[in-house]
Specification:
2 strands; two-stranded parallel ribbon; mainly alpha; 171 residues; 2% strand
Length: 171
């Protein structure tokens, strides 16, 4: 592994850690807002059940896990797809389990499926960029640049939202 590749992996790992922290704040801590449903524990084991299914939430669950798939593709590039699939599933299972255990949300099989699907989409996007650039290293450098800019933007927006400095209110 060359020095440039090692630096790219370090940046990818750093971006992954920031992503996981932000995702934890969004999914587990709900932006620091206490919702009424947090006083009880619920489990939904019926995928896409009418009482729990929301198309926008489903779409957002896929989208929020796409970066995980991209980062996993870059960091676990020598691992089989099944390894990555298991990784997406276990991260989602951990988040769903923590929501249930700490009364932070519902353990929902639909979320588990859509989160894992988002990881798969991200993994496939990384694979497409590898083919486009004809090099895993070039794809990683390009995606790290995009991810770094996106991370700065998202973290800035979340901080401004938390400080009530945006015209949008979530509390």
């Amino acid at each position: 592994m060359g020095k440039a590749e090692n630096n790219a992996d370090k940046l990818t790992k750093t971006l992954l850690v920031v992503y996981l922290i932000v995702m934890g704040w969004i999914i587990l801590l709900k932006f620091g807002v206490k919702f009424s449903y947090m006083d009880e524990r619920n489990i939904n084991l019926i995928p896409f059940a009418n009482g729990y299914y929301d198309k926008m939430e489903t779409f957002l669950n896929v989208v929020i896990f796409i970066p995980l798939g991209i980062y996993a593709g870059m960091l676990f590039r020598n691992k089989a797809f099944v390894f990555n699939l298991l990784f997406f599933f276990l991260v989602s299972l951990m988040l769903e389990g923590l929501q249930y255990a700490f009364k932070l949300g519902t353990f929902d099989i639909t979320d588990l499926l859509t989160n894992t699907s988002g990881g798969i989409v991200g993994y496939l996007l990384y694979s497409a960029f590898k083919k486009l650039f004809k090099s895993p290293n070039k794809a990683q450098k390009f995606l790290n640049t995009i991810a770094a800019l996106g991370t700065i933007l998202i973290v800035s927006l979340l901080v401004l939202l938390k400080l009530n400095m945006l015209p949008v209110r979530y509390q």
